[in-house]
Amino acid sequence: MGLMRFISPPDRIGDETVEQAYLSGFDRIPWQVRVRHDGGELVLERLASDSGNLHIPWQVEGHGQVTLSTATLMERAEPYHLPLELARGKIGQVRNQLAEWEMSGLGVSKAVHDKVGEALGYFAQAAVVEHGSPRSIKLADEAVRAALEAANLLAACYAEQVLGGRQSASQKLGTLLGTDLGRATLDEQTAKETAQALNAANVPLVWRDIETSEGHYFWDTSDQQVEWAKGAGFTLSAGPLLQLDQRTLPDWLALYENDFESVVLFASEFIKAAVARYRGQINVWQCVGRVNTADVLSFTEEEKVRLAARAIELTRALDRDTPILVSFDQPWAEYLSRREMDFPPLHIADALVRPDLGL
Predict the structure, then answer these.
(1) Residue 129's pLDDT is what?
(2) Segment among 52-56, 77-81, 338-342 with least mean pLDDT
(3) What's the rounded Cα separation, in Å, for the pair 140 and 126?
(4) For residues 297 and 9, what is the distance between their CA atoms, to the nearest angstrom?
(5) Radius of gyration in angstroms for the set of CA atoms belonging to the chain, rounded to a whole number
(6) Of the candidates 302, 294, 295, 313, the residue with the CA atom closest to the CA atom of residue 357
(7) Is 47 in contact with 102 (CB distance < 8 Å)?
(8) Which of 66, 146, 160, 213 could form a disulfide with 118 if both were Cys (CB 3.0 to 4.6 A apart)?
(9) Whole-angstrom Cα distance, residue 317 to residue 67?
(10) How far, in Å, CA of 90 to CA of 143, rounded?
(11) For the chain, what is the HEC assignment?
């Protein structure tokens, strides 16, 4: 049994923080972990004993609550001091990103280096005073604050230079700003404001709403949304054609909960009908959503991946030119810290990309 302990000010660790804290390895995939707050210590238990990073929500002055990560820490008998380790981790992240972008040719302002230096100064002081003392905690907090300010300044440098390069090549950026049109048509005023503010939209194509009973399709809302969006000159996406959650799957599909092949057949028929109806009007197909977090119809993880692959394969066969996307919820897989699963999101994505299905 692996065990890591962190000393923290009691007022900084609440029930919600305990619920959201987790450990990950070098590959950033979380371990399944049991977390408890015990007498001023945050205790994390797991089966593995490898070195790892703690990820935890943390309140930072001027920045609100952000998720911070420690550096890679080994297991040891002595507990770590959490504020100090979060400062060490954040400063390390910022310095690594700074070095990577400077090596790539990014011009970085003096203000960024000054802020990194400020963060290092606070951290150095926090590291040499009594750990866990009010002064050490205050200095560590200041180090985190300065490191986050450095990160924001660094990101601003990157954005300014990258956008400047794009604008020099084209006066008008091809950036899309859009909205999901929802499960009902827009009223006149909302449609007018949407057309003025945005240049892209998504038609949801909710299977539950369209095929309310087996084999009977209701396309009226989707037809009106597509017609309005094209008339407004929007770049248009549609889907997910298959989203694996209770809100979007038809109720009648529950009758086939233990019949995977029948569900694949029904999903295929819906996808065929949707793609055939809107082919040539859609700029991007959102093909499958929530593959990694789906908990429906008692499917195994392998079956969910097979179903996603079938949806992608079928969409590409019916429309060879339009780009196809697959979306993931919680891509950092923090949910794996509380439940056992075999496939993290990156592994599922890899499994769908390798067969060259056309993503």
Answers:
(1) 94
(2) 338-342
(3) 6
(4) 44
(5) 25
(6) 313
(7) no
(8) 146
(9) 42
(10) 9
(11) CEEEEEECCHHHCCHHHHHHCEEECCCCCECCCEEEEECCEEEEEECCCCCEEEEEEEEECCCEEEEEECCCECCCCCCEEHHHHHHHHHHHHHHHHHHHHHHCCCCCCHHHHHHHHHHHHHHHHHHHCCCCCHHHHHHHHHHHHHHHHHHHHHHHHHHHHHHHHHHHHCCCCCCCCEEECCCCCCCHHHHHHHHHHCCEEEECCCHHHHCCECCECCCHHHHHHHHHHHHCCCEEEECCCEECCCCCCCHHHHHHCCCHHHHHHHHHHHHHHHHHHHCCCCCEEEEEECCCCCCCCCCCHHHHHHHHHHHHHHHHHHCCCCCEEEECCCCCCHHHHCCCCCCCHHHHHHHHHCCCCCC
pLDDT tens-digit map of 204-225? 999 999 999 999 999 999 999 9
Task: Please check the confidence at residue 277 and state whether its pLDDT lies above 80.
Answer: yes
**What predicted TM-score, i.e. pTM, was given to this entire model?**
0.82
Calpha distance 31→55 (Å, rounded): 11
Distance CA 359, CA 354 (A): 10
Least confident of 52-61, 177-186, 298-307: 298-307
